[in-house]
Amino acid sequence: MTERRRKFYAWGFEDQSATPEEMKPVLDTWHRTFAVDSFDVTAAPTLDTIDMPESKITRFPEAIKDICRTDRYERALHSYGRSFLDSAKMFRGDFRNAPDVVAYPRNEEDVRALIDWAGDIGAAVIPFGGGSSVVGGVNPEINGTYAGVVTIDMWYLNKILEFDPVSRSARVQAGVYGPDLETQLKTHNVTLRHYPQSFELSTLGGWIATRAAGHYATHGTYIDDYVENIRMVSPSGISESRRLPASGAGPSPDRYVMGTEGSVGIITEAWIRVLSRIKYKASKTVTFAEYDQGVEAVRAISQSGLYPANCRLIDALEAKLTGAFDGSRPILVLGYESSHYPVNQLMDLTVDLCREFGGTPVDEKEQGRNSVAGQWRNAFIRGPYYREHMTSRGICRETFETAVCWNNFKELHSSVIETVNAAIKRVTGRAGTVTCRFTHVYPNGPAPYFTFHCLPDRERMGEQCMEIKIAAYDAVMKAGGTITHHHAVGRLHMPWYEKQRPAPIGAAFTAAKKSLDPRSIMNPGVIISEQRGSA
Amino acid sequence: MTERRRKFYAWGFEDQSATPEEMKPVLDTWHRTFAVDSFDVTAAPTLDTIDMPESKITRFPEAIKDICRTDRYERALHSYGRSFLDSAKMFRGDFRNAPDVVAYPRNEEDVRALIDWAGDIGAAVIPFGGGSSVVGGVNPEINGTYAGVVTIDMWYLNKILEFDPVSRSARVQAGVYGPDLETQLKTHNVTLRHYPQSFELSTLGGWIATRAAGHYATHGTYIDDYVENIRMVSPSGISESRRLPASGAGPSPDRYVMGTEGSVGIITEAWIRVLSRIKYKASKTVTFAEYDQGVEAVRAISQSGLYPANCRLIDALEAKLTGAFDGSRPILVLGYESSHYPVNQLMDLTVDLCREFGGTPVDEKEQGRNSVAGQWRNAFIRGPYYREHMTSRGICRETFETAVCWNNFKELHSSVIETVNAAIKRVTGRAGTVTCRFTHVYPNGPAPYFTFHCLPDRERMGEQCMEIKIAAYDAVMKAGGTITHHHAVGRLHMPWYEKQRPAPIGAAFTAAKKSLDPRSIMNPGVIISEQRGSA
């Protein structure tokens, strides 16, 4: 149905893959990391070999039958997100949770018709943007009593409908992918500059529903801050908030919808605030002898009133594994950008601040893609494409992220690193790696992002990975962190999310969901645990 | 009960008043404005002459009887907020809506006991901070069937309970007043710098419950952005969110509570993010020949990536009426501040930008309090103290504010000015004044704040003022503005708020309220229209 087909079992489109030249250094790193000469390579799953039950839904009303698909490719493509846990199951050929139907609405009226129909037949609805979830947000793993699962893929709702040059805002359909959105914005000489790692395969609606965090390390870190209004189709009707730069009229309707992750409706459009294109940039990399010096420097920067667009402290091992630096020291990648004025002086102030904490600017001959920052950026953007090559080799690479106040950071950091290293050893029987970087920083605390690598048993990769993640999540929560800063809750984080959420507010959100989704059909099990027949 | 007594019928404490010297120029302005030589002065209301029914609640459980007051002073003090509408009724001696009981909890346990007791006897509860509401947020004007009204004054919950110098945050009780909070923060060498006009007589809990906007014209305009967590006593139990710098775990529990205005519970504590004390400041005033030039300059500034702490465009007439400038031109008051680095260059960039739109910096001999900005600031801070002197002279001075995207601003501005001038003429039979300033500016639109003066019939001051406000609110909404940027909803704005709020979200918020406040006792009629017995 989609002109250019997405890979059903991995990141990217069928015409995209990491090249052998590109994979060479990556493979070398893996060999070094695990001290092995080679890996057995499992073949990728194929549509005719995967285990997928027949669709439970076979009859469709006239109005929607042309936009509903039940073929194996579409159902397989919409069976999982893109975490390692998903990848492990896909390489095992386990597609038993495939949705029964994949629908491609061509307009809002189709979305409405699909939701009404699903409600009438008692089917669950899973909203699907780019399918890049790493928390099971789009996985049809549902406990309630439903007639089946209808996944609604917003692929065709991908246009900018209106542009307002005076307020510098755009009215955009929710299904637009990152690159397509930027291409369309470029014709108006503006940009959103919202670059989550999933940028290439995630959508505006997905960003808003899951409160994605993007490009900016400080100020306006979340998509939330760029949303002027939201239009959403709920089972209880269409909700459209007033388009405004700000409002103090009661709790923000948009702030309530943002984070519901499809559990109360499907976002079809939003007005978003965009930016003039960037004219001035400055980028610097600073190294520190000790990790704690880097942490203190970043804390000072975060509380200085300087607001760098990039402020990414990467520990020594992660810098090495990503090929950004030699592994002898942690690096701090700094960046400023402006559409209006030169930012060199702000950069100088920031580097001076780093010096106070023992920071040393890297004297860079290489610029752009080959600079330290550039190297790291390439690894960051290409990372998702390597997943399939790791899974096929039995290498587990997973991440988790949080945010925590500065006073708790050091304890969180050390206990998480220790806990995860121990868990890897205990669970897989051999050492792995755990690394940390800051994705975003606030005056009162950082958002640390952890990555771990290990070699689990080939037959139990997913199970062992999950065992390690459970230990990690418990450690994060115990040290005062949030279960997620920007990966969202999905199905994976629900047990910890429900512990974190104040019980009276949880009950209030459950009541709110029942009002918007009386038949409990919207993304069951996400944000609200209660499901049809389960209560 | 309070050591230092607040005036029951006007702004401030009993030991505070505008001095005759201070009033002289103000009175002169009023005489000039309305071309009269003198005003008849109505005497202020006195406790023994006001019309106040007996309290309907006379029996109290042992646990709370010592903190419950039913004397005329306390009931009168808690009968109204501080708008002109309130003032007009107070000067008329109308205290028929006085609360039956005023309770002064000494700790959270008292708050809990009071809410439980009110629920048991079926009384309405009105949370009371500084009582500075200008939208009827604390007025016991209730339609439901209640056994009476219990106002809970948070006066004694006024301490900083914890200070975290590493995250630079403080755990603060909700009842602390602005000046007291800053005094306590100063001992830790930090500041919040949240300065709404109500600063002297409003509380942290009130700011959070109503989403107050403060000092900063850009970036972090709302108190919302400084809140790390909220602890709230609801009829359904105590809710405390996890203290975090940021979180993407579902809809923010705090963003839901902020804006509920006491309708789901009483905020007792919050962790707030504070700032290092300001070391560097720059302030400039720029004038423009035409108002539209000033508007375009501010729009350019708002979209430039420069984020001035102050960016207040004041139209020519308002500048004159406040004694800030001669009335020949609109003025733009600009300010930058930093705890860390000199801000002169940012100011220079901003002034240069103003020049591109015909702006001329005022060459100021006078500095500080006597500068143009200083003059305006004095009038701003002292304004509330003049209210009683205006009401006693039959002068109506009221304000309303909004936020709107830039593309709609000019139409909103002209239609509101025109509508209100016409309404004043029609309703009062003579011309008045309507002026506008920007309190806050965003890249996608400003927050215009309107002030009008008129001379209504002495006998129908409140009614005529309301007639004019209704015309104003309709014009604001028609032109795409919000019913409030930072004055909150209260009881006054409810009809427009309910029009503005998407119906499905309104139903969801109503369901959420029922979950937190099953007996509908919390601030009935605010945010949620449904009341006990009314549905």
TrEMBL record, chains A, B:
Pfam annotation, one family: FAD-oxidase_C
Protein keywords: FAD, Flavoprotein
FAD-binding PCMH-type domain ranges (all copies): 95-277
Family: Belongs to the FAD-binding oxidoreductase/transferase type 4 family.
Name of the protein described by the UniProt record: FAD-binding oxidoreductase
Organism expressing this protein natively: Paracoccus albicereus
InterPro entries the UniProt entry points to: Alkyl-DHAP_Synthase, FAD-bd_oxidored_4_C, FAD-bd_PCMH, FAD-bd_PCMH-like_sf, FAD-bd_PCMH_sub1, FAD-bd_PCMH_sub2, FAD-linked_Oxase-like_C, Oxid_FAD_bind_N
